[in-house]
Design brief:
By secondary structure, the chain is an alpha/beta fold. Helix content is 39%, strand content 21%. It has two domains: 265 residues, 3-Layer(aba) Sandwich (Aldehyde Dehydrogenase, Chain A, domain 1), CATH 3.40.605.10; 199 residues, Aldehyde Dehydrogenase, Chain A, domain 2 (3-Layer(aba) Sandwich). Strands 15-16-17-14-13-19-20 form a seven-stranded mixed β-sheet, sandwiched between helices. Strands 10-9-8-11-12-22 form a six-stranded mixed β-sheet, with helices on both faces.
């Protein structure tokens, strides 16, 4: 396991250049596994944010005019350099985001798949043509870029959100300004250098670090066509309001509270294994982590006993250590928030069946931000721990009588990101797929993350607006439909057109 021996320099990247931080205020970046300071992140001013947008706006005319095959050359190069640098990119995530190194490698691998999907943009951008809508008149729909897009990333998936936004945005002819999370900027620091190394033209992608001041400048900027976010629901709604005032497009994925339903015929070994990965992977800090587990009466006691026994085997330590299973949460404040939820659960009458508040840790990680697997039983849907997103390795187990009771819990919840069911019964499977009031459904899988060719996103308060990431949905978001009405004229036809001989269908075609 390599060590972090020196402070890593984090800078903005604007118009093809790394920008000195100068007198900018900075915040410390710490390794969550050890608590050590590894860098200082610049807090950019609104003026710097505007400069990045201007660079993207200046680059846009030439970039959108770049032939599509040439743009695809860059997308193919992005895929190649990510494959060649997978380990370095994964290590960056394991250092500042403290995602276990195996999961960090998996995240970069998934982004490579997303970039491979982006290589199909020429097919996904194909328009439509209708012939003969009137005499010698044809209609055509083309998909065109819009201009400058801006994006905001959360701390928990620094690579994945890059993949959701940037390759598809620039592949379709737009330019981009990207704000990484101040808690996990290392991936984008390394990724931006790779984009520069492959010769991506100046200004096509720009990176600006900072907080809400960076984002708020985009709302009133006429050069910004749209804003993308993966984050909390309150933040998504704030961005929607800011962009809505000025008619900007938005792609805003919000919070989640995911359900797993275990029926009486659930394959128990598979069920326990998937919950361990889904509930404790990334220390529970992901939008599709299992949080509420609804278990039918028939298997409730066996399930609880087996889950607690298996959870006690989870080892904690440095995220870069391949021999441990779970790393820390992102920060001291995140740890305190999760501990507060554990107190709330106890105060509201839930039973703390497995207490993760003081886990065993290696000596080197005593100052890290660790919470062990935590399990509540005797949870009811009205409890705060069942209603709110905890974003940590805390599982709430709810007893239900039947599939209808479980579906009602899911329907009654104000978030609708994902839900999964474990069963071998075809009736249960089809009923759950049809009736679970969420955007993403899984069957016998703990994390129902769709493949990059399919749309990713929830419903209700988990998605602000209608636009989802990945696949054709993403291509549609980053483009606009332009309609052309084309009359073909025979250069040999010298006949005159008068009001008397105009085809009625032509009149209707040109009316407006």
């Amino acid at each position: 396991m390599s060590e972090v021996n020196s402070i890593i320099e984090i800078k903005n990247f604007i118009n093809g250049e790394w920008i000195s931080n100068g007198d900018l205020e900075t915040v410390q970046l710490k390794n969550p596994s050890t608590g050590e300071v590894i860098s200082n992140v610049p807090m950019s001013t609104p003026e710097i944010s505007e400069k990045a947008v201007q660079a993207a706006a200046d680059a846009y005319p030439a970039w959108r005019s770049t032939p599509l095959p040439k743009r695809m050359d860059y997308i193919f190069k992005i895929c190649t350099v990510m494959q060649e640098n997978l380990e370095e990119l994964a290590q960056a995530i394991a250092i500042d985001q403290a995602k276990h190194i195996s999961e960090a490698r998996g995240e970069v691998g998934r982004v490579i798949e997303i970039v491979q999907m982006a290589c199909s943009i020429p097919t996904l951008m194909q328009g439509e043509t209708i012939q003969g809508i009137a005499t010698n008149i044809n209609g055509r729909v083309i998909k065109a870029p819009l201009g400058v897009f801006c994006g905001v990333a959360p701390f928990n998936f620094p690579a994945l959100v890059f993949g959701w936004f940037i390759p598809i945005a620039i592949g379709t002819g737009n330019t981009f300004v990207y704000k990484p999370s101040t808690d996990s900027p290392l991936f984008m620091q390394k990724m931006m250098q790779l984009l520069s190394d492959i010769g991506l033209p100046n200004g096509v992608v720009n990176v600006v670090h900072g907080e809400r001041e960076v984002v708020e400048t985009w709302y009133e900027n006429d050069d910004v066509a749209g804003v993308c976010l993966v984050g909390s629901t309150p933040t998504a709604k704030a961005i929607a309001q800011g962009c809505g005032r000025n008619g900007k497009k938005t792609m805003l994925l919000g919070g989640a509270k995911n359900f797993l339903v275990a029926m009486e015929d659930a394959p128990m070994d598979l069920l326990i294994r998937e919950i361990l990965m889904s509930g404790y992977g990334s220390a529970g800090q992901r939008c599709l982590a299992v949080s509420n587990i609804a278990v039918v009466d028939e298997i409730y006691d066996e399930f609880v006993e087996r889950l607690i026994t298996a959870s006690k085997e989870i080892t904690l330590g440095d995220a870069r250590d391949p021999d441990i299973i779970m790393g820390p949460v992102i920060s001291e404040s995140a740890k305190e928030r999760i501990l507060n939820y554990i107190d709330i659960g106890l105060n509201q009458g839930a039973t703390l069946a497995l207490d993760g508040r003081n886990p065993d840790l290696p000596v080197a990680n005593k100052d890290g931000y660790f919470i062990g697997p935590t399990i509540f039983t005797d949870v009811t849907p009205c409890m705060q721990i069942a209603k709110e997103e905890i974003f940590g390795p805390v599982l709430s187990i709810l007893k239900v009588g039947c599939i209808d009771s479980a579906l009602k819990m899911i329907s009654d919840h104000d978030m609708g990101n994902g839900a999964c069911i474990f069963t071998q019964n075809t009736f249960y499977t089809e009923k759950f797929i049809n009736e679970a009031d969420v955007g993403m459904v899984g069957v016998n899988v703990g994390v129902c993350a769709p493949h990059p060719y399919l749309p990713f996103g929830g419903i209700k308060n988990s998605l602000v607006g209608n636009n989802k990431v990945q696949g054709k949905d993403a291509v549609d978001f980053f483009t606009q439909n332009k309609v052309a009405t084309v009359r073909t004229v025979d250069p040999m036809d010298n006949g005159s057109i008068t009001a008397k001989n105009i085809d009625p269908s032509v009149r209707s075609c040109v009316a407006g």
